[in-house]
Amino acid sequence: MSVQYHYIARRLHSLSGLIPVGVFLLVHLFINSFVLKGPEAYNQAVELLNSSAVTPWLEVFLIGIPIAYHGFYGLWVTYVSKTNMFRYQYFRNWMFYLQRITAVITLIFVLWHVYVLRIARIFTGTEMTYDIFHQWASNPNYFVIYIIGFLAAIFHFANGLWAFAFSWGITIGPESRKIWTYICVLIFVVLGIAGINILTAFK
């Protein structure tokens, strides 16, 4: 892989983590938040989303392909990454490794999630309603899997925001990076709490 191609690929990977993958994560969280208003509200929100004629196209071209590129290219980057023990401070060094660990967990979780929600549904004809998710959330094994997968995805997104601002030259200087670190931690905590509340509401 040439240096120029690698540079462009890394830029696209960084950008796709924010748009549209990051945006999709937030929209996904928003749609699921309707469960806090009750099963009927959740079912109506999902039905409205699935009834749109443009939804399948959005899922493929604005969600599926970017997620596949971000996930599998990120997996390759994780594989070829070398130790950075002396490049960053101790905290940032841990964030570097956790970003790669959560990348693998999130990719596995997303592939499983897509299979269950989309691919398997084609063969079973089962509609994804509140009742289905209630059965899954009531199963301790599924619930733990969703908690781990969701928190991994949220951490990967929040820490990815820090890396995005750093690599694109938005945070210049240690002070701005320190402030941005606090903001990204806050984003992880807020979204994490919101997501756990949503998952718990399905139980």
Summarize the structure.
This protein is mainly alpha-helical.
Describe this structure in words.
With 203 residues, the chain is an all-alpha fold. It has a single domain (5-201), classed as Up-down Bundle (3 helical TM bundles of succinate and fumarate reductases). 82% of the residues lie in helices and 0% in strands. It contains eight helices and no strands. Helix 4 (55-80) crosses helix 5 and helix 7 (140-167) packs antiparallel against helix 8 (174-201). 18% of the residues are buried.
Radius of gyration: 18 Å
Strand composition percent: under 5%
Enumerate how many helices there are, as a single number: 8
Summarize the biggest pleated sheet: none
Encode the helix/strand succession as letters.
Answer: HHHHHHHH
Topology:
Elements: H1 3-18, H2 21-32, H3 39-51, H4 55-80, H5 90-124, H6 130-138, H7 140-167, H8 174-201
Helix pairs in contact: 1-4, 1-7, 4-5, 5-7, 7-8
Characteristic key phrases:
8 helices, 3 helical TM bundles of succinate and fumarate reductases, mainly alpha, 203 residues, globular
